[in-house]
Amino acid sequence: MSNKINSFVVADPAKCIGCKVCEVACAVSHTQYGVVTAGTMEDPVIPRLYLVKTPEVTMPVQCRHCEDAPCANSCPVGAISQEKNVIVINETECVGCKTCMIACPFGAIDLVPKYVKGEEITQRVLKSETQDGLVEKAVVYASKCDLCISRPDGPACVENCPEKALEVVKPAVLKKERNRDAALSLLESVKKFIG
Ligand code: SF4
Ligand code: SF4
User: Fold this and answer.
1) 158, 163, 166: which is closest to 17 by C-alpha?
2) Which of 163, 142, 171 has the alpha carbon at shortest distance from 58?
3) Distance (Å, rounded) from C-alpha 78 to C-alpha 179?
4) Does ligand 1 have an atom closer than 6 angstroms to the CB of 106?
5) Which residues contact ligand 2 via a Cβ below 6 A?
6) CA distances to 25, 125, 128, 185 from 120, in Å
7) What pLDDT was estimated at residue 34?
8) How far does the centroid of ligand 2 lie from the alpha carbon of residue 90, in Å?
9) pLDDT at 77
10) Parts of the chain with a pLDDT under 70
């Protein structure tokens, strides 16, 4: 197995208490205004992972950084690519067609509005009908977990979860550990067999 296989963040549903700290940490880490706290953010809190609460399970769901990413393979304008070992969306190239959102098997992508200093960015030409008549339609773009690619300390959700319910999974490392565990287990079986 290649060591270049993409990592991803996964939550342990047995530990997650649904507090949403991961969502807030995610939004804060992706703000364009440097170091801020959730309370001083000018833009709305828009996370890139999504807390799921059902009677059966509570845990956030986020991008798995698929090796043959269906989102990237379906994007008609080539706005999704792999950078280093992370699947990323170029929001400037995205036209908001939602193809990636439908293609993703995890529901890891959302279409979100664009804000600059608390102001929603609108389109130059396309209008939207409201009670007040025609107004400029908001710009939206596809957004998802980018493993905090620009953050030196790695994913903010993992660092900030108070229950330590999130971890970065490195499949290549995990596979080697499982191989080692299997070999040790086989060794014990063989020892019993040969006395
Ligand atoms: S957004 Fe969905 S399809 Fe794309 S890489 Fe992430 S999990 Fe895979
Ligand atoms: S919404 Fe954007 S990123 Fe997604 S498929 Fe359409 S253009 Fe590509």
Assistant:
1) 163
2) 163
3) 38
4) yes
5) 75, 77, 79-80, 89, 94-100, 142
6) 21, 15, 14, 58
7) 61
8) 9
9) 98
10) 1-3, 33-41, 195
Sign of the dihedral through C-alpha 159, 161, 165, 166: negative
| Atom number in ligand 1 closest to CA 144 | 1
Q: In the block, which residue shows the tokens 């709305």? A: 44
3-state secondary structure 11-75: ECCCCCCCCCHHHHHHHHHCCCCCCCCHHHCCCCCCCCCEEEECCCCEEEECCCCCCCCHHHHHC
Ligand 2, residue 78: give the atom nearest the CA: 8
CA 111–ligand 1 middle distance (angstroms): 14
Residue nearest to atom 4 of ligand 2 (CA): 100
pTM of the model: 0.87
Q: Which ligand is nearest to the CA of 104?
A: 1
Produce one character per residue of 56-85: b if its CB has 16 or more CB atoms within 10 Å, e if not.
eebbbebbbbbeebbbbeebeeebbeeeeb
- Give the count of beta carbons closer than 10 Å to the beta carbon of residue 34: 5
- Residue of the CA atom closest to atom 8 of ligand 1: 66
pLDDT of residue 43: 75
What are the tens digits of pLDDT across the range 82-103? 999 999 999 999 999 999 999 9
